[in-house]
Write a structure and sequence with these properties.
Order of helices and strands: EHEHEHEHE
Mean pLDDT: 95
Strand order of the largest sheet: 3-2-1-4-5
Structural class: alpha/beta
CATH superfamily: HUPs
Distance between the termini: 24 Å
Number of helices: 4
Largest sheet: 5 strands, parallel
Radius of gyration: 15 Å
CATH topology: Rossmann fold
Bound molecules: adenosine-5'-triphosphate, magnesium ion
Number of strands: 5
Length: 139
């Protein structure tokens, strides 16, 4: 029943907790993990070297994914694939889940933006409402 589990990470402590939770489940079910990180578009900023910032964004994205890979391997997940996407995080997560017919999306309740006055962050809120599959937000 749980063959494909998508874990969305922004590299935050919240996402790390979600990753631990999801990879435990994935290892038990021998499910394939789809690790994804979405790089958000830059706001328009005059007089800055956009290319340089994008290079840094890519470097950070790779580090986030590599750290997540190390973590899930430690938890005993054997089958996984990692993807770095560009765009609006919630939209990209929902679309990726649809295209790959995942059974469950696991996210942190909050993320790197963490003003924790709201019940959920904007990405986890949007994904929970709009995705076709079960969404788990880890607290
Ligand atoms: N860029 C991203 N790529 C992949 N997953 C993400 C991304 N941003 C958020 N997530 C996932 O969504 C969870 C909740 O993060 P979210 O961005 O909703 O909260 P926040 O950063 O606290 O609030 P906000 O971004 O609305 O200020 C994260 O723990 C992570 O699992
Ligand atoms: Mg955020």
């Amino acid at each position: 029943m749980l063959n494909k589990i998508l874990i969305a990470t922004d590299g935050s402590d919240h996402a790390r907790k979600a990753l631990e939770y999801a990879s435990d489940i994935a290892a038990k079910y021998e499910a394939t993990v789809y690790l994804i990180h979405v790089v958000s578009p830059l706001p328009s900023m005059p007089e800055v070297d956009v290319q340089k910032i994008q290079d840094i964004q890519q470097k950070i994205a790779k580090e986030i994914i590599e750290e997540a890979e190390r973590e899930i391997k430690k938890k005993g997940v054997e089958s996984y694939q990692s993807t770095i996407l560009q765009g609006q995080p919630a939209q990209e997560i929902i679309e990726f889940a649809r295209k790959n017919s995942v059974d469950m999306i696991v996210m942190g309740s909050h993320g790197a933006g963490s003003v924790e006055t709201l019940l959920l962050g904007s990405v986890s809120h949007k994904v929970s409402h709009l995705a076709d599959c079960t969404c788990v937000t880890v607290k």
